[in-house]
Amino acid sequence: MRLYSESFGVLSNGVQPTLVFLHGLLGSGQDWRHVVNTLSSGHLCITIDLPGHGKSQMVQAIDFAHVNQLILQTLLHRNIEQYVLIGYSMGARLAMYHAASTHSTVFPHSGEKPACKKTPQLEGVVIEGGHFGLPQIECATRFLNDQKWAQRFTDEPLSLVLPDWYQQAVFSSLNHDQRQSLVLKRSGNLGSGVARMLLATSLAKQPQLLQIMEALVLPTIYVCGERDKKFKRLVEDTQLQYQVIASAGHNVHVEQPYAFSMAINNFVKQIGINHG
């Protein structure tokens, strides 16, 4: 099984990696349209609709390992050889899990990779507003909270749930109009699909990924908005390369798409220089 994906631009030469984008909870590949419009002139860009979202909304996710396999199957179907994985929020956590599963010798590999095709080569990771994992002592409380949200997503109209969802602290940089816009934009989702994905990829179930990411011999950059105080503090305490984007909160690629695109462009150039 694979996920719905779309491609933009063309592979200009055999050196440039394909840019693969993973959206956040309640989003879809369409969320990247402004970034893709900028980057597809020089790169092949692939957007993926994750399980329970967009045109993959009928795909049911089991856990991180299962979603990771679906992403890999999608890359294989697209015949991608080299790629940079770019993820936002939930998608960023999945991107880190994917990097750990493909590049870390201490991380358990999730399932057998198909032998019929050459495995795509991950060349770099861009993490936008992704959490590295909770201390064990906080996991039970977090999962209980996620279960409550999942119940609401399943039982209530999204038009009633989303105003409360966007009042959470992580969205504190949004003003009233931005919140209302997101409520309208996200109300077309299938609530039960979102609920299943929320539980399957709950932060409470995520392995601790920071030390693994810091130890990987893999180009990685963390991008966050200057108004996203929580995640800015989170990355400042790490050894990862990071970039803070001015005049942006948690969702940098929507609030400052050009600056985010330039950050990716420069990162990909840096990878090329390092390879050279």
UniProtKB/TrEMBL annotation:
Gene3D superfamilies: alpha/beta hydrolase. Coiled coil: none annotated. Pathway: Quinol/quinone metabolism; 1,4-dihydroxy-2-naphthoate biosynthesis; 1,4-dihydroxy-2-naphthoate from chorismate: step 3/7; Quinol/quinone metabolism; menaquinone biosynthesis. It catalyses: 5-enolpyruvoyl-6-hydroxy-2-succinyl-cyclohex-3-ene-1-carboxylate = (1R,6R)-6-hydroxy-2-succinyl-cyclohexa-2,4-diene-1-carboxylate + pyruvate. It holds the Pfam family Abhydrolase_6. Belongs to the AB hydrolase superfamily. MenH family. HAMAP family: MenH (MF_01660). Monomer. This is Putative 2-succinyl-6-hydroxy-2,4-cyclohexadiene-1-carboxylate synthase. It comes from Photobacterium frigidiphilum.
